[in-house]
Design goal:
single chain, mainly alpha, two-stranded antiparallel sheet, 12 helices, 2 strands, 3% strand, elongated
Length: 239
């Protein structure tokens, strides 16, 4: 299997190569190092399965912060097998040669779809209070039905604050939560100017940083798990 033929033509045909290249590709087979969006982003448009897997991975990545704080994290991660990296953020979608082969010539798309359904069901079915309670109410229409960011068909997430809203309700640049946060920080800014005390501003910045760090840490924690799994992959890599 030649990676370039996979990435540019979507072809899984076997070619004759030298022993050294063969052993290198065997070693790399299950390690996610291929950024399709950096090398050939057109593949996502040209290839139907790649188009589907991109949406699938985007939805999976939005379940990451739920899995990270869930008591059943281990069981949920087990559903992904050795593909914990499928939870990475959209900008970081990496594929292994094995992924691409199993997408083009196998049933990886169908299998990952079942995994996604199970994870989404765990979060939304109400049996896990921690996950279930991390849903959102659309602040535009206040409909009582809870929204989750991975319901991408009808839900959109604010880039800045990560709050979720109905797609049909959301207006770019008018996020109610961001406006609230802005208003609050302006108020605190006035207070600190009046009292000649900048601590409040510093605290706010720290809080924001802490919130950002929370997601970053969640992700890092999972990356750590990934590293362990990658070791396992290296050891049992047989193709
Ligand atoms: Zn849960
Ligand atoms: Zn709404
Ligand atoms: Zn926002």
């Amino acid at each position: 299997m030649i990676p370039a033929r996979l990435i540019f033509d979507g072809k899984t045909k076997a070619y004759r190569i030298c022993k050294l290249a063969h052993s290198y590709l065997r070693y790399m087979y299950a390690i996610p190092t291929i950024s399709v969006s950096a090398i050939n982003p057109l593949l996502y448009q040209k290839n139907k399965r790649m188009k589907i897997i991109k949406v699938l991975r985007s939805r999976l990545s939005k379940t990451r912060s739920y899995i990270a704080t869930c008591k059943q994290k281990k069981e949920l991660l087990q559903l992904l097998g050795d593909r914990h990296y499928f939870l990475a953020k959209e900008d970081d979608f990496l594929f292994s040669i094995r992924d691409l082969v199993e997408i083009f010539a196998g049933d990886l798309v169908a299998r990952m779809y079942l995994v996604l359904e199970k994870i989404e069901d765990h979060i939304t079915n109400g049996q896990c209070a921690i996950c279930c309670n991390k849903g959102f109410i659309c602040e535009y229409c206040s409909d009582s039905r809870v929204l989750y960011p991975f319901q991408v068909d009808h839900v959109i997430q604010c880039n800045k604050c990560s709050a979720a809203f109905h797609r049909k309700c959301y207006k770019e640049g008018s996020c109610p939560k961001c406006k609230r946060v802005e208003k609050r920080s302006n108020k605190n800014g006035d207070f600190s100017r009046n009292s000649n005390n900048n601590n409040n501003n510093n605290n706010n910045n720290n809080n924001n940083n802490n919130n950002n760090n929370k997601y970053y840490n969640d992700y890092n924690e999972m990356n750590y798990d990934d590293d362990e799994d990658n070791d396992e992959i290296d050891n049992k890599d047989g193709r």
